[in-house]
Amino acid sequence: MTDVNTLSDASTRAVVVTYFSGPFLDDLVASIPAASTRVIPLTVVDNASTDGTVEYATQHEAIQLIHSGGNLGYGRAANLGVHSSSEDWIIIANPDVSFKPGAIDALLQAASRWPHAGVLGPQILTPDGRIYPSARELPSLGRGIGHAIFGWWWPTNPWTAGYRREREAPTERTAGWLSGACLLVRRAAFEEVGGFDESYFMYFEDTDLCERLSEAGWDVVYAPSAVVEHHGAHSTSRSLRAMSKAHHQSAYRYLARHYPGPARAPLRWVLKAGLWARYQLSRRVSGVVHGAQPTRRS
């Protein structure tokens, strides 16, 4: 693990995955210089956008552009960006994130206080200034069922509150998982666990990554001294039904892996049936999953 005393000399890069992200990318690029006293190089991995995103990235001298060759999904494209670079620390962010002044330096300073941190996440604000609950407990069967059933119509229910931890003051602490809208990952830790699991096309790849990092002995740290703003849902809004379906498929994949083997097959069937029913309900209620994190998260 990296010695905290060498952190001041550690190199840092930002990696952003784009998919029809043109209107937002300019704000992200413009926010980076004020977010750090360091020069933060930026890699953009584009998943076959045709809205001008590629043209913008090509013309911007601060961006290293990687053409993914198709819509690879979020985790696979992010892995491509990380593996194409060599920096010690990687900021993986959605394109509709903008960094508040000093945010990147605040993340790195928090990393110096947590020498075993494998990943850190900032405080995420919505465009209207509300704190988004981006540092949560890992989904368990009980919390997951309670949150899934009651989250829409009883948002203060104890299962949702325990899972989202949004009633707590934003203090620096460990978390079960952090929103993938913006993460600072230690390369050594990221590579040790194999990066994002590419079997998740979208959603839950951040939950899975944080869980595997924790199991490998790394800390998952919420650092609210670093602040970013996240617009959210810019890419998912193009195909709400498909994204809602992807969310529920990823939820099943994540939960089912925790209950393997023939003896637990009935439980997996119940999970699949319940999530299918929730997907059908989500289409009727709003077309998207209530409580979804900005752009990609649940």
Write structural notes for this entry.
With 298 residues, the protein is of the alpha/beta class. It folds into two domains: 4-232, Spore Coat Polysaccharide Biosynthesis Protein SpsA, Chain A, CATH 3.90.550; 237-285. Helices cover 38% and strands 20% of the residues. The protein contains ten helices and twelve strands. The protein has helices at 22-35, 53-59, 74-83, 103-113, 141-150, 158-164, 187-192, 205-215, 240-256, 265-285, and strands at 12-18, 42-46, 63-67, 89-93, 97-99, 117-125, 131-132, 135-136, 173-174, 177-178, 182-186, 219-230. Strands 1, 2, 3, 4, 5, 6, 7, 9, 11 and 12 form a ten-stranded mixed sheet that branches. The protein has a two-stranded antiparallel ribbon with strand order 8-10. β2, α2 and β3 (63-67) form a beta-alpha-beta unit. α9 runs antiparallel to α10 (265-285). The radius of gyration is 18 Å and the shape is globular. The chain starts with 11 loop residues before the first strand and ends in a 13-residue tail after the last helix.
In short:
The protein is an alpha/beta fold. It has ten helices and twelve strands.
Number of strands: 12
CATH architecture of the largest domain: Alpha-Beta Complex
Q: What portion of residues belong to β-strands?
A: 15-25%
CATH topology of the largest domain: Spore Coat Polysaccharide Biosynthesis Protein SpsA, Chain A
Described by strand count, sense and barrel closure, the largest sheet is: 10 strands, mixed
Tell me, rounded to a whole number, the average pLDDT.
82
Q: What is the CATH C-level name of the largest domain?
A: Alpha Beta
